[in-house]
Amino acid sequence: MFGTNHRALRLACRPNPHAALQAQVRALTEANDLPGLARLLGAIPPAERLPGHVPMHLAAALDLRDAEAIAAAVAGAIEVALSPRMRAIMAWRLAFAGHAADAWAVLHADPAVIPDAEARDAVLQLLGRVGNEASAQPALRLAARALGRRLAGAPVEVRSHPAPHAYPAGPTGA
Length: 174
Known about the structure:
By secondary structure, the chain is mostly helical.
């Protein structure tokens, strides 16, 4: 009378490929082994990392203040598919740790972050921080301040105007 869902049973019995990694992460986190956690998560190719590991990896790397660990964590934050809010928070953490260029790279790795309503507060805060970060390149500071003003201000209507003359090699290569 009741049929068995064989597909659901096969899926339920399949071993979780991430279970061993999750157990290692849990053990290192409970032991507060930040170097071990940074090494473990840094050894995973960025495109194969899990979204939940990005905040842990970044926190461990920033706490260690190790340039290689931070670079690996930033690569993961850029490559891993994160929600716009989570991406903004990761960029915010980098900005407030004095890594303005890395924060900018993480923020702009996904164009959906800037217009996302849930990410807006974190984005505006990190843009303010990057805009005032003395160690950041002047152009980066200027871009962050300009983008922050535009995001905080009223919506601007963008209109295109025809060029007064033809370009010999326009965007279409014509």
